[in-house]
Predict the structure.
Amino acid sequence: MRTESRRDMKILVVDDEPPILSLLSYNLKRAQLRRDYGVGWRTALILARQEQPDLIILDLMLPRVEGLDVFRAIRRERDVP
């Protein structure tokens, strides 16, 4: 992980459930962490490549694609927790 302040950390949240996104958004905002959201798996792959997040919170049960497949696609390009 990069050595930067906690506020500079980028967190990508990938989930298709609005209530879960809302809850995660609230808690990450309270912790003063920067966050990007990719609701769909294609958006998640694009954001993971473009934004190079420090952490990805990924739903494993996405519609039309397994979350583990998205995880594997991201990990082929870079090592991100």
Summary: Residues 18-30 form the longest helix (13 residues). The beta strands are 10-14, 34-37, 55-58, 61-62, 65-66. The chain has a mean pLDDT of 84. The CA atoms of residues 40 and 54 lie 19 Å apart.
